[in-house]
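Appendix B: complex inputs.
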Amino acid sequence: MPTPTTRSTANSTPSLAPILRPRSVAFLGASNRPGTIGSELLRNLLRAEFKGPIYPVHPKERAVLGVRAYPDVAAIGEPVDLAILAVPAAQVVPAARACAAAGVGGLVVITAGFGETGAEGAARQRELVAICATAGMRLVGPNCLGVVNTDPKVRLDATFAPTFPGPGSVAMASQSGALGVAMLDAADALGIGISEFVSIGNKADVAADDLLEWWAADARTRVVLLYLESFGDPLRFAQIARELSRSKPIVAVKSGRSERGGLAASSHTGSLATGDLAVGALVEQCGLLRVDTVEELFDMAAFLAHQPVPRGRRVAILTNSGGPGILATDACEALGLDVPELSTALATTLAGELPAAASVHNPVDMIASATAAQYEACARALLASDEVDALLAIFVPPIVTDPTDVARAIARAARGHGKPIVACFMGLRGVAEATDALEAAHIPSYAFPEAAVRVLARAADHGAWLARPEGHHVVPQGCDVEAAVAVVRAAIGAGGDATDANGRVELEGEALAALLDALGVPRAASRQACGAGEAAEQARAIGFPVVLKLVAEGVSHKSDLGGVKVDLRNESEVFAAWDALAEAAERHGVRMVGAQVQAMVKGGVETIVGVSRDPSGLPLLMFGLGGVHVELMRDVAFRIAPLRDVDAAALVRAPRGFPLLDGYRGAAKVDLAAIEDVLLRVSALAAACPELLELDLNPLIARPDGAVVVDVRASAQAYLQP
Amino acid sequence: MPTPTTRSTANSTPSLAPILRPRSVAFLGASNRPGTIGSELLRNLLRAEFKGPIYPVHPKERAVLGVRAYPDVAAIGEPVDLAILAVPAAQVVPAARACAAAGVGGLVVITAGFGETGAEGAARQRELVAICATAGMRLVGPNCLGVVNTDPKVRLDATFAPTFPGPGSVAMASQSGALGVAMLDAADALGIGISEFVSIGNKADVAADDLLEWWAADARTRVVLLYLESFGDPLRFAQIARELSRSKPIVAVKSGRSERGGLAASSHTGSLATGDLAVGALVEQCGLLRVDTVEELFDMAAFLAHQPVPRGRRVAILTNSGGPGILATDACEALGLDVPELSTALATTLAGELPAAASVHNPVDMIASATAAQYEACARALLASDEVDALLAIFVPPIVTDPTDVARAIARAARGHGKPIVACFMGLRGVAEATDALEAAHIPSYAFPEAAVRVLARAADHGAWLARPEGHHVVPQGCDVEAAVAVVRAAIGAGGDATDANGRVELEGEALAALLDALGVPRAASRQACGAGEAAEQARAIGFPVVLKLVAEGVSHKSDLGGVKVDLRNESEVFAAWDALAEAAERHGVRMVGAQVQAMVKGGVETIVGVSRDPSGLPLLMFGLGGVHVELMRDVAFRIAPLRDVDAAALVRAPRGFPLLDGYRGAAKVDLAAIEDVLLRVSALAAACPELLELDLNPLIARPDGAVVVDVRASAQAYLQP
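Resulting structure:
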């Protein structure tokens, strides 16, 4: 069963410095045979001119690629910070033991054949991790491409990839070796400087969360790029990412959407929490910049490495050709950027620089005759105005104007405004030199306007995220999380018959009531009755009108089979309703156990609050409008627990149908704070109780005077330490 | 006001052959001065080695670029099929007259300064068009880049673009000269062969619809690529595109989404018909393959030029690396392609070819050791099975295997299955040669898996469109379109006070009733009353229960101000309701004119049927679920009128809330045929009556026994011939 994991790392964790800033490197598995990892990786280490000694380890050879070799780590006789292991899988564990004995600082295990290959490999991986933990060595891999640090004081290329990219401010991590090779290639080809690169492979120890923590403290790193298939410890990742995103943007390709496995969903929330909603929620909350492809990863990196994040969504488009200007305007609209009409004053300024046939509206079409000087003057005027937050300069090479002159002119105009500027130099000919000139001025350039706009839009989204208040973790008063967790655990313990083949237990009526009461979530007064007389009695105790709900084995959608009778105003209506339920149960061939007598909640808006878990165990909180809205329109939104107060407020406002809660067409506004309060209470449970698989408060009736749960379902399962 | 236009072209239109397959070319504006269009275009004509004579026309020079020149067209003294004009704007009209007099077959006008520049230019353009029409010359441009035909028997490069691409089966048209240059460059760089290229510029005469018609009959053309900012004659375009798409795929970048101008919307339909819904509807109905960027245009072209459209949505992924396989699987899921689990038999076959560590599930991960022979054997097995409809082969260059060997192996396996195959060779190094090998085998290759999957998904969508029945144009019985159009025109004529500043008239109650009756659209029995007594009398005549609706000046959302009283069961309730309406009108400061007495329609599902117009005048038909669904959820869908029967059926089923019509949770199914019938009636009016701006049947109550209109609004405006 997938469950969240929290490693006991914290402050006692050894540093990654021996791995990423080693002063000496041993390479176990070095080889003189061309075309092997053992030879390619050593060649890379040498080509990069590592700043410390490299000690190849080989059982027989005296030298590998001309470098003196040692028969084992112990024989080196000098301190070794980093040991790289590319020996056969069966030799990795003994080699790691030898490294531990020799006082090696950290390991990078290239070798495959561990957790990714079945039970034997998994056992080997556990043994490897245990050796490292005992010795205080951090471990990258196994089954990885290696690590890179371009720092001129380090110059480590411990990979077997063909490319060693130039130094810069972009740190990269990849869970896939193949994508890692593609990322190193792309960075090099696009001239994007790298600070460090880590191929995390099986992430038996070092995972993305550790790297975020490391790069947070790395002065050379200003932007982080990630290719991930899964989060190691999603809650820890979320927490660190949310912190780091405030100072260094994190751009991520998160793959593995289609890996949804695990248990089939039995709740509404579970059935709606499909695809990569967890990732979407995490992105939304943690300020990640999520992109879909590796290409977009680098489009984004080229921007973030040097350009400021825009302070607003207003884009000026400057072009010498109408078509691309229109494409850019379309793209802006599609991605929620404004292309504002310019003020008369600004338009007049621009008109003073341009021929009469030019258009000084936005997009500013300077027409094909535009000169470099006109680009410079117009770019300056637009950037200096307070009417725009960012500039997109488009250039289509006409016959006359030299692209490089235009590039230099734009670069001059870009200085000193504190506003982002991106370029799109179209056409594949004669533009390379111009692109180089832009690159030298740190102005990112894209081949098509849409790519440039996409980058600006994501940057503006990130700017908006940065401008939001950070919020606080809040547990509302009277929310006894421990007591609620105890209710869930007791239900699992007492599961018995209610436990299904997967070990999952559906919580019964009394446990559900106890759960809500422990959390302090208001619910409609409700009692169970085993007979019609008892039901009438309890109805009188609760107060009329009441609702009578069928309690029968294996029935979830009670209303589908006529199992709910509402607005019963007196005892005789309760008796009649009981008979109707009994008859409905018989008609559908289900065994009636009794009925629930519940206070009738009148008016208000039906909403749904739910908890579900993504395959990695991440607790997902759902909110939406109830009934048809949730079932057909899927008008729901997700966040990851634990929610901060700002998250709860945002989640309530996220569904398209939110106006129905907020005084739509003269209706009374419901108590939004009450819904937020319920969300925070449920969030506290979801975060603290990995046993809770699914929870539906459906409906939670929201009214002007509060919110009250009318029906609830929950399932739980014993928590297995992963 | 934007209105649909229907040119009186039809069969009498002169052919485009003199322009696109000329036997001789005159070039007015030829120049010896380097860096001018007059010199670049002539250089292109010569470089392409045009198969007929080229006659430069220059007032003074005896030769241009070494070719004998003539002082004017008349002086050539030989038949001229095509005249290219790049003379100054003021000289274009006289030059066109001279061409007409000299019996030239057709014109391409490069010169700018016409309709795109204001009143004077527009007048000049009208004059130019008139000259051409009279002389029977078709006209490309003005304000364009020129035309290309790569046919070895023609070899025409009448553009000033730097690239003359190789011959092939892809025809291209661009409304933007700049994008045209980019398209020619991209085709050349990607090795995509072109049949013909036309830069349509201001499309004063020849527009995309004409080119589709021309390419339909062109044996060399198998795929059409379009970059469009607007449709010249959208209805004609739609009709021709729908026809052509059956035999030759049309891939389009349609820009200009943000150009929505025209009238502010006053109806629901109008306010929902924003952005590029018209284009979306047109794409859906006409089988266009719409892409977002020029890059995707060529991704698609590379596929369609040689690969068959898949017969289903099942994709096999064959890879030597896990990460890209997962990325591809994700992309498939996101785009609605299946990556099916393979049968045990097929998995066993694959396992027989591969090492134990390989995964023979789909994606098939052959791991890094995969050889060319393994690629070939597995690709063959997958393509031969009846479990997949298409194959994506991913290759990440490891150290050992040669990419070109793998490419050749895949090419061999691809033959003779009739199933599409696409490749993704990742990493920028050492793959160019491999890509060439794939290109030679007509297997499109993409740099990243997502691009490859996107192409397959669009191709599968197109395959599904091709498999759908074509349907028929149907006008239901008893639908008197002429009478309905007459109602609209009469309302415009009698507009008077009801006409707003834009000349728009809101139709009044009796006209609306007459309109629905002429179309044969069922409506709830309804009468107007001027006093309470009259209302009670009419209620008795209609039959209780009734609804009373306020009729007041300038009130659209009656229910917002308490202007609708429902379920009135007797005369005294009608009197009370009348007083309530009067009071509500007074409270809101509106003048009560009277009330509408309407039969109460009980039960059923509220739907909305509407007509709106996009900025080009294209009539849009909308259908959705009513009330909150339409207002908050925007759960509506659009098609372009006139609908075929299959369109009406698809439109009814398009909203997410469709299950509410189809027996949701045990409710009775409504009469879908009755809704389709209403849609076809309204469609007939929308297509025949350009004066009709907006129409809302809101709600149209759908019930098991039919559909009936309960409220209707419409506005119209005098039709101005464009």
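Residues 1-11, 258-265 of chain A have pLDDT under 50 and may be disordered.
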